[in-house]
Design goal:
It is built from three helices and five strands. By secondary structure, it is of the alpha/beta class. The radius of gyration is 14 Å and the shape is globular.
């Protein structure tokens, strides 16, 4: 018996250089609506992001909670930003790379 899995298409979200509270409030409604559209793994691409606030950490956790069964990861994370996720205890859960 063989089993094949059709790979799910990943949704890639790219973010700006400063993910502060104002930026998060601006993008979260659109992001949440997009995440609710269907079953797909999610990739947050943080290339170029130089600052994250606690609001962005919360946004990432909420996105993870909605999509973790399909796959969630964060890529191109600068070392200083990765350290923020590590200190918050979110590095492994959110698959920060």
């Amino acid at each position: 018996m063989s089993q094949t899995c059709e790979p799910r298409e990943a949704r890639i979200y790219r973010f700006e250089s400063c993910m502060d509270t104002v930026a998060c409030e601006r993008i979260e409604p659109e992001l949440q609506a997009s995440l609710a559209e269907g079953e797909a793994s999610v990739v947050f691409d943080l290339a170029g992001v130089k600052f994250v606030s606690s609001a962005f950490l919360g946004l990432c956790v909420r996105a993870y909670q909605k999509t973790c069964q399909f796959g969630f990861e964060m890529i191109n994370v600068e070392p200083t930003i990765k350290r923020v996720f590590k200190i918050a205890g979110l590095e492994d859960m959110l698959k920060v790379r």
